[in-house]
Design a protein that fits this description.
This protein has about 575 residues and is an alpha+beta fold. The protein contains 5 helices and 35 strands. Among the domains are: about 300 residues, 7 Propeller (Methylamine Dehydrogenase, Chain H); about 100 residues. Strand 16 and strand 17 form a beta hairpin.
Length: about 575
């Protein structure tokens, strides 16, 4: 049986409607277009069978396949709504308001039984942030944050609080995906000199810090992002500060931490300084991709030991998106970047295509793992609104631009459960398309008339670093050296030095070893040449050699050096020879 065709929901000033996905791209007739301009929000259920939206008058739920109305609620001011994982409950949120006399407002967060339409519970939820209750995948547990506590409900029974987790000033939490037992990651910001911390608990074992599965504390954290992998075995914690006290970044400072449910934790060492733009788990749960560093940013895949697996080099990227099947990775650059998409086959680490999605404000993989949608939406950008559907090989298969004076607000693919669309073999040649790709080509740098007939000079603000498999490498160096390999390499070098010293024993006029030379060169000179210029040169050479020694020590501990640092190390022999010649002439 052929897999189904995913739908694309489109919301804008032209109304709310659905488009049949590839290869049709026609408006879906089962869903009757809502032509009103007051559509505020929509949401699919997790398996894509139900669709809910608010049109400014009421919240409606329809069956996606038949288009039949399942349920309707009189909630005209709803701005957020979400289905529980098994479609049993619909949660809605309206802005909280108080009465004119200062009396407390009415509850603005409702949870409804989808089958009966009954309101299971109403809550007062003043803040928009983290408004929605969080369910486990089987809906046996539901949790929400209330003041300094997490309240847990079981089997969608909201009349009784089954369990509580009390943590002073708890500000964020995330339930683990997948099967039971359910785990919960909680974040408590630091105060009055105390560090912030993230803890992992297994429900319902909330006996305190000693009952936590893992505990990680850090000082540099005003807020965090908690990312569970799909197997619920580990969490990535992106910790951010509002201000970078070193003054290196306007956007604050970020660090990345790894926590596992077996108690292990680590700081993910990133070889390039600068912001962390994105971190995302592969669907296989055994590796993750991080985009980081001052522009041009680096992108690296790490394993569960936080060791680098593959380095994509540098480029104009600030986001990473794995396909639902995990076989393709897109590195993208949106916002103030040009919209370049680098599409990679992550099984073989081969570049598939480099399309350009200029002015895109939204990106999403189709559940089939073959197609992508990019969109330019208001209010992020109010001109050039529209969307494109691409094949990952770079072909634009469908393009829609809204009419002048109209706006596009939101697009989203109909989701499907895992396994509906199996992974297909990655292809590298672009699929045929009748839609011309009108993306602008990279503009050439301006050259004044006097220089136009002369050879161009390659002046760059920065040196781009190619992907790991495109760099000149020695044999057996396709992957970064592991900590064990570096340790063995240091032992081998120590043995080599010991053998050289053993051979030199008994000889009075033997040349000093490299280590001895460095000790001599780093020592304060007791004898001068009598020429201030020569003494200055000797001092500068020793300073450079000392810096090279420090770089070699860093490389020996596993730190990945930049290109200019590696070039410095390669100049060591020449600097030693120059120093020796100067000292012989004294």
């Amino acid at each position: 049986m052929a897999p189904p065709t995913p739908l694309l929901a489109v919301r804008g000033s032209e109304g709310l409607y659905m488009v049949n996905g590839p290869p049709h791209f026609t408006e879906n007739t089962a869903f009757q277009r809502d032509s009103g301009k007051s559509s505020k929000v929509f949401a699919f259920s997790k398996n894509g069978s139900l669709f809910a939206w608010c049109n400014g008058e009421q919240v409606n739920i329809v069956n996606v396949t038949s288009g039949d109305l399942v349920r309707s609620f009189d909630l005209p001011k709803t701005v957020f709504l979400e289905f529980s994982p098994k479609n049993n409950v619909l949660a809605t949120w309206q802005p909280y308001t108080t009465a004119k006399d200062g009396a407390a407002g009415v509850p603005n967060l409702q949870v409804f039984d989808v089958k009966t339409g009954k309101c299971l519970k109403s809550f007062i939820q003043k803040k928009m942030q983290n408004w929605c209750p969080c369910w486990s995948d089987d809906e046996s547990i539901c949790a929400r944050s209330v003041n300094n506590e997490l309240h847990f409900f079981e089997n969608n029974n909201f009349s009784t609080i089954a369990n509580k987790l009390h943590l002073q000033k708890v500000s964020d939490f995330v339930l683990s995906p997948g099967d039971q037992p359910t785990k919960v990651a909680v974040y408590v910001p630091g105060s009055k000199g105390a560090p912030s911390f993230v803890r992992l608990y297994q429900y319902p074992n909330f006996g305190g810090p000693q009952s936590a599965l893992a505990n990680k504390s850090f000082f540099k954290a005003d807020k965090v992002v908690l990312l569970w992998n799909s197997k619920a075995t580990a969490v990535l914690v992106i910790a951010s500060t509002e201000v970078d006290k070193t003054g290196a970044s306007y956007y604050g400072e970020q660090t990345l931490h790894y926590m596992a449910t077996n108690g292990e934790s680590a700081v993910v060492q990133l070889p390039k300084n600068g912001p962390i733009y994105d971190a995302t788990w592969s669907p296989n749960s055994t590796e993750f991709c991080v985009v980081y560093g001052f522009m041009p940013a680096k992108a690296t895949i790490f394993n569960l030991k936080c060791d680098p697996v593959f380095d994509f080099g540098t480029g104009p990227h600030n986001a990473a998106f794995y396909s639902p099947q995990g076989h393709i990775l897109v590195l993208a650059g949106f916002g103030n970047l040009s919209g370049q998409l680098d599409v990679w086959d992550v099984e073989n680490y081969k570049l598939v295509s480099k399309p350009q999605a200029s002015d895109a404000t939204y990106f999403a993989w189709c559940p089939d793992g073959e197609h992508i949608v990019t969109a330019t939406c208001s209010p992020r950008l109010r001109v050039g609104n529209g969307y494109k559907i691409w094949h990952y090989t770079g072909s634009v298969l469908y393009k829609y631009e809204v009419p002048q004076n109209a706006e596009l607000w939101q697009v989203a693919w109909q989701p499907f459960l895992e396994g509906v669309f199996p992974a297909k073999t990655v292809r590298y040649s672009a699929v045929p398309s009748k839609v011309p790709n009108d993306e602008p080509k990279t503009a050439q740098a301006y050259r004044p008339p006097a220089l136009r007939n002369k050879p161009a000079t390659s002046l760059k603000l920065h040196e781009d670093e190619p992907p790991q498999n495109m760099r000149p490498q020695s044999k057996n160096s396709n992957k970064p050296a592991s900590k064990t390999a570096l340790k063995n390499q240091r032992k081998h070098e120590a043995k080599k030095v010991a053998k050289q010293e053993a051979r030199a024993e008994g000889s009075q006029e033997t040349a000093p070893t490299l280590q001895e030379q460095n000790v001599l060169h780093n020592a304060v000179p007791l004898v001068t040449s009598g020429d201030p210029e020569v003494d200055k040169k000797i001092k500068n050479l020793k300073k450079k050699l000392k810096a090279i020694e420090q770089l070699k020590d860093q490389a020996a501990t596993g730190k990945q050096l930049e290109k200019n640092q590696l070039e410095k190390i390669q100049k060591e022999a020449a600097l030693l020879k120059e120093l020796e010649d100067l000292e012989l002439g004294m």
